[in-house]
């Protein structure tokens, strides 16, 4: 992690949070659907709940969370059970008024920045499923939540929404790779482990080349050595939304945002069945 990455993610959080809050203030119908069965208001509430939880989680001191009742579900969650935890979070965070949600979001983002200002950005803190994520990675995750769910709301309202590649690159390097480097906990425990080793090399104009190697349901972060089964050259602004199901794999390929090569590209679907975003 570099000083520039830490400064970039700290600058990105109020920037994207402000854009998200501005988007909410212009919503004509907060009850319109934006994500599956979620309304625009529920989608915004979900993001607000995460920002509020991070005001405490980012300290990493084991202190109480601002929404009692989420500690045990957070610790026990896996990628496959996260929908139930999200539903509980919506019940515990009942605010649905877009204007109040926008105001609370700005306040909680300011608190996250204040609490994290003097922390070591590489300090691992407790996250979902017993995983450990660097402080900077937690900020990058919140930026990505704002970007992805901002896209959901913008699509529902017919408004434009920009996802910068440089910010999604921070999500990959600081959050995803940072979590794999530390501890993924039991986030992938529900997946069917395969003894086959599958190594995927990630390369883009915005990220340092890296390899994620999957075996027996566990991930390792490795430097590239030319032996990866699959090589991905990608635009982070397309790859990350694809990983979260906002862009289909076919469309990502047709747009040129994800290019697949390597000696065993047919192993990518098996890799993606296990390595999914919570």
Task: Give a short overview.
The chain has 278 residues and is an alpha+beta fold.
Structure description:
The protein is 50% helix and 13% strand. By secondary structure, it is α+β, with helices and mostly antiparallel strands. The protein folds into 2 domains: 3-182, dinb family like domain (Four Helix Bundle (Hemerythrin (Met), subunit A), Up-down Bundle), CATH 1.20.120.450; 198-274, SCP2 sterol-binding domain (Nonspecific Lipid-transfer Protein, Chain A, 2-Layer Sandwich). It has a 5-stranded mixed sheet with strand order 7-6-5-8-9. Strands 1-2 form a two-stranded antiparallel ribbon. The protein has a two-stranded antiparallel sheet with strand order 3-4. It starts with a helix and ends with a helix. 43% of the residues are buried.
Quickly list its features.
Four Helix Bundle (Hemerythrin (Met), subunit A); 10 helices; about 280 residues; 2 domains; alpha+beta; two-stranded antiparallel sheet; Nonspecific Lipid-transfer Protein, Chain A
Looking at CATH, which topology of the largest domain would you report?
Answer: Four Helix Bundle (Hemerythrin (Met), subunit A)
Oligomer designation: single chain
Strands of the largest sheet, in order across it? 7-6-5-8-9
Per CATH, the superfamily of the largest domain is dinb family like domain
- Helix percentage: 40-55%
Number of domains: 2
Specify Rg, calculated over alpha carbons: 18 Å
Structural class: alpha+beta
Q: According to CATH, what is the class of the largest domain?
A: Mainly Alpha
Proportion of residues in β-strands: 5-15%
Question: Tell me, what's the shape?
Answer: globular
Query: What does the largest sheet look like?
Result: 5 strands, mixed
Q: What's the CATH architecture of the largest domain? A: Up-down Bundle
Q: List unreliable stretches of 5+ residues.
A: none
* Terminus-to-terminus distance: 23 Å
Tell me how many strands there are. Answer: 9
Mean pLDDT: 94
Discrete helix count: 10
